[in-house]
Amino acid sequence: MLEGNYRLAVAIFIGIFCGFLLVKSDLAWRKTCLNMFLLKDGRLLKTLLFSLGFGVALVYLLQHLEVITLHVRPGYFWASLIGGALSGLGLAFCFRVPITALAAIGAGRLYALWSLVGMFLAVSLVGAVSDLLSASIYSWSRPLDAPQQPINFFDEGNPALWIILLSIIALTFIHFTFRGEAEE
Amino acid sequence: MKVLTGKWSFYINGALLSAMIVLCLYLFQDTVGMNDGMIQISEYAQETATQVSDSEEIALPPLEWQTGFLGGILIGALAASLMSGNWKIRFFQDDKSGIISKSLKTILYGVGGGFFVMLGLQLAGDSFLGQWSAALQLSGGAWIFLISCFAVASGVAILLENRGESGGDK
Fold it and tell me: What single-letter DSSP state applies at residue B7?
């Protein structure tokens, strides 16, 4: 594990790569995200589906080879469901998540600064009402079980196998049915 | 040089996105989301906004791997957009209507949208990249988050588009 300045230097380097990737994959542009949610453009959907299928397989393999260990924050059913719905509502208006807002600003789209302002306001609000949230939304259900990976990959109860299969099917469907539109 | 100036295929983008997350898991031995970095920057912004006098000293956010990563994204996006000729200064998300109308729309949609995106992410407990990383690790909470997020975003975007409200700008 990296420590100290090496950790910081590598993080900056990976961040630069991530910013590069966000622009190259069109994830940083509002227009392409809008078209993805309107189901008009399959390119971003294919990128995300490929990332899911490939990533699940890669994590499964490397975890079984003991190269990586899993690091996941505890999840709560209602918090995840309501949080996802709220984020989806926000996405339908600004089409940005924190890292894509930063990438858009880097690419000169200064209007994405307003999204960052909204995000900082939300962090302050959640900090102010954290006790209330702990007593309500986080107490409605117990924490979800930690992720577990079956030893046998081809076990029919292995979620990784199903996710990879469904990703391949969805990718094939989107590839042959959706047309790509001109990006920004 | 086309690799630096042109677009990349979906399978290259998808594979690199996953590989980057796995590399972070391997190198940092930590959750990959940038939640802590965003909270630190937000606290700094909040303290600066509520600063009473100039003599009051406010500590800068600590330069840790998450804040460094966020800074790197700015540099990487700047470099990529310059190389591919996509870099341009834009103040408004939409260039159809008059200045007042498009200013209001940019501010309202930007602040309101960003607020709800981050509110949801804070409730769910991690940033979007963190939720994506957790989904690759088969976390049930992350899958619930992603499915509900994409379903609501797509539904609301289609409703707004049918009303002619969602723009369609670049």
Answer: P
Give the span between the Cα atoms of A26 and A47, in whole angstroms.
10
Closest approach of A114 to chain B, Cα-based (Å): 5
What are the start-end ranges of the H helices in A25-158?
30-37, 43-64, 77-94, 98-106, 112-128, 130-135
Instruction: Name chain A contacts of B158, Cβ cutoff 8 Å.
Output: 37-39
Task: Verify whether the Cβ–Cβ distance B134 to A72 is below 8 Å.
Answer: yes
pLDDT tens digits, residue range A1-53? 777 788 889 999 999 999 999 999 888 888 889 989 988 888 899 999 999 99
Say which amino acid occupies A102: L
What kind and span of H or E run contains A11? helix A4-24
| A70 part of contact set with chain B, CB < 8 Å | yes
Q: ipTM value of the model?
A: 0.91
Residues of A in contact with B165 (CB under 8 A): none
Chain A stretch 97-136, residues whose beta carbon is closer than 8 A to a beta carbon of chain B: 97-99, 101-127, 133
A180 in reach of chain B (CB within 8 A): no
* SS3 state of residue B92: coil
Contact between residue B67 and residue B77 where contact means Cβ atoms under 8 Å apart: no
The predicted-structure confidence for B140-167, as pLDDT tens digits, reads as follows 899 999 999 999 999 999 998 887 655 5
Q: Looking at beta carbons, which residues of chain B come within 8 Å of A76?
A: 125, 141
Do A12 and B71 count as a contact with CB atoms less than 8 A apart? yes
DSSP character at residue B126: S
CA distance B30 to A69: 9
Q: Which of A70, A71, A87 is nearest to A79 (CA)?
A: A87
Is residue A136 helix, strand or coil? coil
Which tokens hold the place of B90?
């834009």
Burial of A155 (0-12, 13-18, 19+ CB in 10 A): exposed
Q: What are phi and psi of B167, to 5 degrees?
A: 95, -100
Contacts of B78 (CB under 8 A, 6+ apart): A19, A106, A107, B87
